[in-house]
Task: structure prediction
Amino acid sequence: MVQATTGMIHFADNLDVLVTLADGTANLIYIDPPFNTGKVQRRTQVRTVRSEAGDRIGFGGRRYLTARIGTQDFPDLFDDYLAFLEPRLIEAHRVLAPDGSLYFHVDYREVHYCKILLDSIFGRECFLNEVIWAYDYGGRSKTRWPAKHDNILVYVKDPGNYTFNWDDIARIPYMAPGLVGPGKAARGKVPTDTWWHTIVPTHGPEKTGYPTQKPLGILKRIVEASSRRGDLVLDFFAGSGTTGAACLALERRFLLVDNSRQALEVMARRFAGVSGIQWIGFDPAPIDGQTTRDPS
Ligand SMILES: C[S@@+](CC[C@H](N)C(=O)[O-])C[C@H]1O[C@@H](n2cnc3c(N)ncnc32)[C@H](O)[C@@H]1O
Result:
């Protein structure tokens, strides 16, 4: 169980893991699903039901039976993207603690559709913020305004009762310190909903080599603001494990899921030497060997 460990990392399809989690177990969820890029994705359709005949054991010893309906490659197109996300977001809402928050990191081309989907699952009144992560890197279009931001939608389960640690949030310098008094300028300000933050520096120590790795500074800000020490943070599109790294730095527990062997290998390197991590479906030791199995 996660309670006794620093973290738990699953090599699996996230829906298979989500359905085994008890209601209200995650204090904070951060997810950064693959964007709707037009690349081909593989989708395995499964149906998981509670059944005494099942071979998967979930929380409380409950048994689950997973039936594979079929596997298909599909272009990462709009309709399929939302159909892929919806059951996972419904589960995310269910496993979120009563005072928990969901941070949903998405591309500017998809954010509108995802907001409507999330409104339908959480309720519009539970929408807290749209955080704009702005950066300044890479090629620049000359035919339109160069797109240099991602969107992070923030939802809470209960708008009347949620964790938001305003006093703990690391302050940043004012853009125009001359316009505030010297005391305020020295203290800095709590960030607004627009976060200027560099991408992961290409040659910095933070770089893992995982193509879609997000900056640790962004994850630390989220974890610090919206969870407490010892809380459980869930990231079921974990990639290189940035959420786990933020949790280690801030003394939170984590539950990470990814269905890519490459992601698990990167996480094994990133968390090498960290004690208390439980690996499910993946052996982190011989990362170049054949001891891992594909998620089923
Ligand atoms: C954009 S990346 C996440 C990057 C991550 N935030 C980081 O900082 O490294 C999305 C991840 O979702 C994973 N993924 C996609 N579909 C999945 C599924 N059905 N179950 C589990 N993981 C999945 C991909 O393998 C990929 O690593």
The helical segments are 14-18, 78-95, 111-122, 182-187, 216-226, 242-250, 261-270.
